């Protein structure tokens, strides 16, 4: 596949290996490009022998950095004829682990070499701008990206953790039952739940420690870097970070800010996650809609939580964040066949690409 391809497409993605047809303008619409471009970028990074930065949890419950191959992120080599990319799909192996229907996740990878179309990975995707508003005026090494997390992402986090305890549910029960069997607690009142947050965090940490060797890729987070708040793409523009499921928990656990009187979304996420894990421990199924709807604490459920670039930088700071490895000139090798003409300048990366037409000359 080359930049001279006449049909609009994205590198590594075709009509036969994904459920999107990128010759169709509708496949470049809102939210679709933000999921598809990161996958294409990973395929290109693999071709260029650029391994994503892997953020995983260590035994001291700190996020450490390593490298991971794109093959290990997707479960098969990214250009394999057996690999299929199912965007905005449900990870069917978890269907029996939830009450009612299973929510969709940004990407499910499949191995099509057998009749079962074996599911490989469920992946959250966050295409993030660098810097965000909170870090645009600091030195480049302090740049960070905002991450906004949906409630369905917390379900998939709970499922990812639950799967490694599928044969040892009693371990989950042992650590969570002392919290959730306390008598007289009104779980809908945050004033009664707040004193238990520390116990929930402690239980989660003990649970993760038991299966530290079994953490797996969970969130794909490509970055695209601009010059401050402008739409001008930096010469060193793109890179890819991958969060393990266990490391992802630090985004809300480390930044709870327990001193405040009113609940914040990160505290509520701790409640959601521990309640979902306890649900699985007791029933083998997670009634996630009931949990999210009944544990609102007067805070809207439109998102689980958001975390600013000021707070993500300490986890992600490295040479690859300051000097991303894939140059802006590579864009013409990723967006092919005039696909950029299908983009809408309503979202920031789309606008940046359209503001730099010379990239496709």
Describe this structure in words.
With 361 residues, this protein is of the alpha+beta class. It has one domain. The chain has 14 helices and 13 strands. The protein has helices at 32-47, 70-74, 151-164, 169-180, 190-193, 197-210, 245-248, 250-253, 265-283, 288-294, 309-316, 319-322, 331-334, 348-354; strands at residues 9-10, 53-57, 63-67, 83-89, 105-111, 118-125, 128-130, 147-149, 217-226, 233-244, 305-307, 326-327, 335-336. Strands 2, 3, 4, 5, 6, 7, 9, 10 and 12 form a nine-stranded mixed sheet that branches. The longest helix has 19 residues, at 265-283. The two termini are 17 Å apart.
From the helix content, strand content and strand pairing, which structural class follows? alpha+beta
Query: Structurally, how many domains make up the residues?
Result: 1
DSSP strand count: 13
Order of helices and strands: EHEEHEEEEEHHHHEEHHHHEHHEHEH
Give the structure's gist in a few sentences.
This protein has helices at 32-47, 70-74, 151-164, 169-180, 190-193, 197-210, 245-248, 250-253, 265-283, 288-294, 309-316, 319-322, 331-334, 348-354, and strands at 9-10, 53-57, 63-67, 83-89, 105-111, 118-125, 128-130, 147-149, 217-226, 233-244, 305-307, 326-327, 335-336. It is α+β, with helices and mostly antiparallel strands. Strands 2, 3, 4, 5, 6, 7, 9, 10 and 12 form a nine-stranded mixed β-sheet that branches. A two-stranded antiparallel ribbon has the order 1-13.
């Amino acid at each position: 596949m080359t930049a001279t391809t006449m049909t609009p497409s994205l590198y590594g993605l075709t009509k036969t290996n994904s459920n999107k047809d990128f010759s169709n303008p509708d496949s470049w619409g809102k939210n679709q490009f933000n999921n598809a471009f990161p996958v294409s970028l990973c395929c290109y990074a693999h071709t260029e022998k650029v391994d994503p930065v892997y953020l995983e949890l260590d035994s001291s419950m700190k996020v450490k950095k390593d490298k991971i191959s794109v093959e290990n992120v997707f479960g098969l080599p990214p250009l394999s004829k057996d690999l299929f990319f199912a965007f905005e799909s449900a990870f069917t192996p978890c269907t029996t682990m939830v009450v009612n229907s299973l929510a969709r996740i940004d990407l499910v990878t499949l191995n099509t070499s057998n009749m079962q179309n074996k599911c490989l990975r469920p992946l959250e995707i966050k295409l993030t701008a660098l810097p965000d508003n909170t870090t645009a005026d600091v030195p480049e090494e302090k740049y960070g990206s905002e991450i906004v997390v949906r409630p369905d992402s917390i379900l998939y986090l709970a499922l990812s953790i639950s799967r490694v305890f599928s044969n040892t549910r009693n371990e989950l029960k042992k650590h969570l039952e002392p919290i959730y069997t306390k008598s007289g607690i009104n779980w809908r009142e945050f004033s009664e739940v707040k004193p238990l947050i520390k116990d929930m965090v402690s239980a989660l940490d003990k649970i993760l420690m038991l299966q530290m060797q079994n953490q797996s890729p969970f969130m794909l987070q490509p970055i695209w870097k601009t010059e401050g708040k402008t739409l001008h793409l930096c010469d060193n523009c793109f890179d890819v970070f991958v969060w393990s499921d266990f490391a992802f928990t630090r985004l809300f656990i480390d930044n709870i800010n327990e001193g405040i009187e009113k609940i914040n979304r990160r505290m509520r996420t701790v409640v959601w996650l521990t309640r979902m894990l306890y649900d699985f421990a007791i029933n083998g199924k997670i009634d996630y809609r009931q949990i999210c709807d009944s544990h609102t604490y007067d805070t809207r459920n439109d998102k689980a939580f958001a975390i600013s670039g000021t707070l993500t930088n300490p986890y992600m700071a490295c040479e690859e964040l300051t000097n991303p490895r894939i140059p802006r000139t590579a864009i013409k090798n990723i967006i092919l066949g005039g696909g950029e003409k299908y983009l809408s300048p309503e979202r920031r990366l789309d606008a940046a690409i359209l503001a730099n037409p010379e990239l496709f000359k």
